[in-house]
Amino acid sequence: MSGALRAPAEEDALTVARLISQHSPEPATRNQVRRDWSAPGFDLDHDARFDGSSYVAVDAFGDGRVWIDVHGHPSPEMIEWGEGRAREKGSRLLSGGWTSNEALLPELEQHGFQPIRHAHRMRIALSRPASEPIWPEGIGVRTFRPGDERGFYETHQETFRDSWEPIEESYDEWAHWALEPSVLVPDLWFLALAGDEPAGLAICNPSPGAPELGRVQVLGVRRTWRKRGAGRTLLLHAFAEFRHRGLKGAVLGVDAESLTRADRLYEQAGMYVAARFDIYEKVIA
């Protein structure tokens, strides 16, 4: 049963994680929620609301785009609060949800949001036989070393500039999500190198809410090295390392209309679509 809208408190983190987990393909954890709340620029008192059965958080990207993150079964008042806060922070209102959340998506449409894009959660079982990674000529790979932080950051930002609606993160913002000890697994950070020059990267870890799964959080190849097999080899290398660790499967998220056709690469590697996330936008007159 819904209660009054209020800012969430520290003791609500577990309940919020459960609301997120209701429709997410992998469960969320209390620590993930706390990390969201401690993100640079996020003000828990002003940027989130909770009523017991739903949760909304509003995050500005700094360029006019604002993401309204909604979970649970939101009341019209909850959606209206999120939209109102978003209007204070930007001019392009974006939101969305997993297609299994039949309460949320119609509510967004009733408030004037329209679907504009889809993203897929893709998955593969690691028990099946797999192709061995064969590195393209001139490219090798190594794992993360202390001092690599800036190199991984810069390669990540560069390789994702060709994605749909790319988000330019500051180093501090990126470090908050990538270098936090609970998610940083140096042996699962892979840097593809052509000599001393980065050609691509894969940032992976065990999924926080489903530790039997390996998560490919980031996979990118620089333009110069695309269409040479580096992306596929990075992916297969990650799968091989997951198997070595005894993980049962692998997951990742991808734009369903990827400009670099990453979705096709993942399908060719044996992954399948396990869930779909619909992205909505409300145009402000």
Overview of this protein structure:
The protein is α+β, with helices and mostly antiparallel strands. It folds into 2 domains: 10-112, 3-Layer(aba) Sandwich (Aminopeptidase), CATH 3.40.630.30; 123-278, Aminopeptidase. The protein has helices at 13-21, 30-37, 44-47, 76-89, 104-110, 149-159, 171-178, 230-244, 262-268; strands at 48-50, 54-60, 65-72, 92-98, 114-125, 140-143, 189-194, 197-207, 210-221, 249-255, 272-282. An 11-stranded mixed β-sheet has the order 1-2-3-4-11-5-10-9-8-7-6, sandwiched between helices. The radius of gyration is 19 Å and the shape is globular. The mean pLDDT is 95.
Question: How would you describe this structure in keywords?
Answer:
single chain; 285 residues; alpha+beta; Aminopeptidase; 2 domains; eleven-stranded mixed sheet; 9 helices; globular
